[in-house]
Amino acid sequence: MSFELPKLTYAYDALEPLIDARTMEIHHGKHHAAYTANLNAAITGTILEGKDIEQILKSNEIAPAIRNNGGGYFNHNLYWELLAPGGSPEPEGDLKKAIINDFGSVDALKELFTKAAITRFGSGWAWLVKQNDKLVVGSTPNQDNPLMNVSEVKGQPILAIDVWEHAYYLNYQNRRPDYAGAFWKLINWDVVSGYFHE
Ligand code: MN
User: What pLDDT digit, counting tens, does each position of 48-58 carry?
Assistant: First the structure.
């Protein structure tokens, strides 16, 4: 069993004009495809072969190639799933309650998360994670994620933004804040809520 590049549930141009089709094509078809192929190559013949991706990322000591490509494989799976053409209304129900409880308001969460995305130096990700019964925001460098022991922010990721330049540079050049702002218009909150309830 090897890991496979997931098919997107929407077309490459479906997130236009906020995320352009060419960026999507390269990001999914080249970057994510490479992480997937390189993860399969790195895992073959190791004790982690056959384990699911979360088990792999949570394991105590992972080789750099598995950390980088396993992170890249998992993080992008989540990112594509969280996005939807046209986005969706604000979070509701228990998720909304938890956000208000932990951050004060949905807008306060957005502000904190956007700041984490903008201030992550170089390449990486910003996250909303569930830590037991608490929600926290943080960021990680490169393809690290909150499931890994090495991560400063730990927990189950429920929302993620890719802030590598490959995620936005064609459309936004150096304007990462504009990309991070547009991201909120593309969120599928039902998916976030689904992970929140897991
Ligand atoms: Mn990426």
Answer: 999 999 999 99
How is the chain split into domains, by residue range? Answer: 21-82, 93-196
State pLDDT tens for residues 20-59. Answer: 999 999 999 999 999 999 999 999 999 999 999 999 999 9
Sign of torsion, CA 8 155 70 23? positive
CATH of 93-196, picked from 3.55.40.20, 3.40.50.10490, 3.30.70.790, 2.30.140.10, is 3.55.40.20
**Alpha carbon separation from 175 to 136, 154, 165 (Å, rounded):** 25, 28, 10
CA of 46 to the centre of ligand 1 (A): 26
Instruction: Name the CATH code of domain 21-82 (choices 1.10.1370.40, 1.10.287.990, 1.10.10.10, 3.60.15.10).
Output: 1.10.287.990
Mean pLDDT of 101-110: 98
Strand arrangement, sheet containing 156-162: 134-141, 124-131, 156-162
- Rounded to the nearest angstrom, the distance between the alpha carbon of 97 and the centre of ligand 1 is 30
Measure 145 CA to ligand 1 centroid, in angstroms: 13
pTM over 0.85: yes
